[in-house]
Amino acid sequence: MNPLPVGTSHWQYSLLPHAARVPLSRMAREKYPSSVENLDGNSWRILLPHEDSERKAIVVDINGIIHDGVHTLGNQIYSTNDVNLDEVNWISNDDHWTRSILWLIEEARILSIYGVDYSEVINKYKLRLEIVKLMHSIKLDLIVEMKELYKTMFGVELILPKVSMALNDWNFTPESVASIMYPSGYLKWAVITVAPKAFSRGMEYVRYVIMHELIHLAIGESDKSSHGHNAKFNMLAEAMGLPKQFRD
Prior knowledge:
This protein is of the alpha+beta class.
């Protein structure tokens, strides 16, 4: 049996109907009975909170199918008020990326019931969860300091969107270690992504990398001709103590 890849942390945005594409803070799973002992023919139900009513749920029924030696998951999506939500054990977190990691761990745990060893995946994402928590702690301390300096320097309060922290190495060049995604469309929060390789250079290095991206967020997306490293960026970077080698 070929293992089923665990990598569906963002399925909710591509599969859910438009009305359900809201920042999701909860998810639950319950196992359906099955007549076979492997993934083929097994079904799961995922419950998501409905945006229009606390007493309704969006239901995603997932069916495991095996064909040509490959496992596929089929999905049916609908809303219902026939679920007793008071008895649901929600997987919950207000942070987008933390929530995605929790979902992946739970997904791997459920699949492990059917004889596929996902312990390596589970341990990997548990470690990633701890690293993301550490990044959040660094971020929060930097934001407090930045808001105080910003008000002193520019005479106005610094209003920042919610900031989610991600850990992955997607789309990074060999020279880059971090990026920022600004809020847009359905994405109501900013996402700072740090590459795992940054941690091999020490926590002070990681702190400066996160600081760099937060300064970008503070000054906005203006002056793209200088990649956002304009005079205001450098003023705030200097006040925050960001070394010059971290300002490019």
